[in-house]
Design a protein that fits this description.
33% of the residues lie in helices and 18% in strands. It is globular. The protein starts with 5 loop residues before the first strand and ends with a strand. It has a single domain, classed as Thiolase/Chalcone synthase (Peroxisomal Thiolase, Chain A, domain 1, 3-Layer(aba) Sandwich), CATH 3.40.47. It contains 13 helices and 14 strands.
């Protein structure tokens, strides 16, 4: 049976560049960074003291106050982005068969903030003072659960947990659910809120984070010679996906067509990528095959581009391995240069960005690109956004554990 076609009809995002999609997209196109000195706790004893934080976020604008108290921060972000995406799509779930509508949302870490809070309470006051909401607040599947409850959705419902690939895997699973006839509508993406004392300490001791503390906005510099690590971020990116005829019948506005997905493993190391980029290249090739497209049709790549020494070289090699001669002409940019690395939310936010690139024919830049690294020799759209006819875009997400995942979106051709 031929797979059913899937389109994107709604987008939602919460990031350091705004609590919704429009301000984030505007800032990205202007090349503005959302990375600042860390404010949610005192970072004085930390080697990395900068972050891409979501500031001034009021969950009451999106969620009932009583319900918000029972949710972790990563669930606030997911619920807010899902609400924006559903409003943007114009879908009315009271008119839908709710058994044919579902949710898949990924997160790499989940409720670490609540875990830290309740662990302190356990040590200071004893086990009977630990909150009864600890477990439902820290579990990663709370995010899709809360969204499904909000709209009464009874179709496919699950969470993906694959480190930084979590959001991408959620979107890929949602694509398959619609293609294979399990659902007509899916809400999918990623969310994360791991900027906590323990979370940041863990990445610091791994020496994964940038220590460019005196110039936060210049700290994330993917593919650039002087990069020294990633900048931790938080937020959520959520999309509404629909089967094409379902979207047509209700007159939905379509951002683009979700064409392909692939996931592979490095089988190499728990945190270091395979230096040759074999697994990442395979994910790209298979995603294009899944989309029924070839490298000559590709217009843009939203790279994983974390700003770490090993990842950026590996991904550059992987893109060359996957695209062959086409690698010299396809623009590649990393929006993590402005948003930092949102971990499990990265794939969701970058999918939203990729859909906007297809819609608006604009490619955001890789900012802070001053000195080229000879080992990273692609067109990284340095420092200034570029108008490009984006007919076919690809997004990479690579995670600890050796997870490689790629999504492909194209212009909707009717």
């Amino acid at each position: 049976m031929r797979a059913r076609r899937v389109v994107i009809t709604g987008l939602g995002a919460v990031t350091s560049l705004g609590h919704s999609v429009p301000p984030m997209w505007k800032a990205l196109c202007e090349g503005r960074s959302g990375i600042r000195k860390l404010t949610s706790f005192d970072p004085a004893r930390y080697t990395s003291q900068i972050a891409s934080e979501v500031t001034d976020f009021d969950p009451a604008k999106w969620i009932d106050v009583r319900e918000a108290r029972r949710m972790e921060r990563f669930c606030w972000f997911a619920a807010a982005a899902a609400e924006e995406a559903t409003r943007d799509s114009g879908i009315d779930f009271t008119r839908e068969d709710l058994t044919r509508c579902g949710v898949i949302v990924g997160s790499g870490i989940g409720g670490i903030m609540e875990m830290e809070t309740q662990h302190r309470r356990l040590l200071e006051k004893g086990p009977d003072r630990v909150s009864p909401f600890l477990i439902p607040k820290l579990m990663i599947n709370a995010a899709p659960g809360i969204i499904s409850i909000r709209y009464g959705l009874q179709g496919p419902n699950s969470a993906t947990v694959t480190a930084c690939s979590s959001g991408t895997h959620a979107l890929g699973e949602a694509l398959r659910a619609i293609q294979h006839g399990e659902a007509e509508v899916m809400i999918a993406g990623g969310t994360e809120a791991a900027i906590t004392p323990l979370g940041v300490a863990g990445f610091c001791t791994m020496k994964a984070l940038s220590t460019r503390n005196d110039s936060p906005a210049q700290a994330s510099r993917p593919f650039e010679k002087d990069r020294d690590g990633f900048v931790i971020g938080e937020g959520a990116g959520i999309a509404v996906l629909e089967e094409l005829e379902h979207a047509r019948k209700r007159g939905a506005d379509i951002y683009g067509e979700f064409l392909g997905f692939s996931r592979t493993g490095d089988g190499f190391h728990i945190t270091q990528p395979d230096p040759g980029g074999r697994g990442a290249a395979l994910a790209m090739r298979r995603a294009l095959e899944d989309a029924g497209k070839n490298t000559d049709e590709l217009s843009y790549i939203n790279a994983h581009g974390t700003s770490t020494p090993l990842n950026d070289v590996m991904e550059s090699h992987a893109i060359r391995r996957a695209l062959g001669p086409a690698a010299d002409r396809v623009p590649v940019s990393s929006t993590k240069s402005m948003l930092g690395h949102l971990l499990g939310a990265a794939g969701g936010v970058e999918f939203v960005i990729m859909a906007l690139c297809v819609r608006h024919n604009i490619v955001p830049p890789t900012i802070n690109y001053d000195t080229p690294d000879p080992e990273c020799d692609l067109d990284f759209v340095p420092n200034v956004a570029r108008e490009v006819k984006v007919d076919l875009a690809l997004s990479n997400t690579l995670g600890f554990g050796g997870h490689n995942s790629t999504l492909v979106v194209g212009k909707f051709a009717g």
